[in-house]
Amino acid sequence: MLHLRVLSKPLATAATISLLLLSGCGGNASNENAPVAEGENSPQPWLNNYTTALWQIEQQRQTTYPVLQENIPDTEQAALAKVRCNQPETIRGFSRTLRREIVAYCDRVAEIIEAQNLTVDEFNQIRDRLDEDPLLETQVMQQLTELQLQQQG
User: What are the per-10-residue average pLDDT scores of the chain (153 residues)?
Assistant: First the structure.
């Protein structure tokens, strides 16, 4: 799976798919109440919160995924890529220890999202809009670039 060393295309992909294991976290919310971006130069608090949560989740994923990957036989690597936090059946084939690690990761992801004053459903609604809204995707990418520069600086 993707490992971020530089921002550019890999982080764009991460933003679009909202990370391994996270996709669908919390259910299938409709997009009708998703926030709307209001112009390039006026980031809304929800957008800042989303981008910060996305950045922190990616950091968590980079820590967790290699540990999970090390403990899964090569024959089951594809199954790991299909794990979704809101679909418990996607973890049934793994050992109890790995299931605990995956559930703990999903719990940490939910905590990260909620710490940014978003619900998991709101986070997923914004994530779903990234494919449909190039302006929103651009705003997220700009903010992710700023976060990376702050971390490096």
Answer: 34 38 41 44 81 95 90 85 89 89 95 96 93 94 93 84
**What is the structure's pLDDT at 71?**
83
Residues, the chain:
153
Q: Which residue has tokens 């006026």?
A: 42
Please state, as a whole number, how many other Cβ atoms lie within 10 Å of the Cβ of residue 53: 23
Euclidean distance between the first and the last CA atom of the chain, given in angstroms as a whole number? 27
Q: Helix (H, G, I), strand (E, B), or coil: what is residue 21?
A: strand
pLDDT at 73: 83
Give the SS3 label for residue 87.
strand
Nearest one of 49, 29, 54 to 128, comparing CA atoms:
29
Over its C-alpha atoms, the chain yields an Rg (Å, rounded) of 15
Task: Say how far residue 11 (Cα) sits from the centre of its chain.
Answer: 11
Please give the structure tokens belonging to residue 87: 């679909």
Find, among 142, 111, 103, 127, the residue nearest to 18 by Cα: 127
DSSP secondary structure letter of residue 61: H
φ, ψ of residue 87 in degrees (nearest 5) = -130, 85
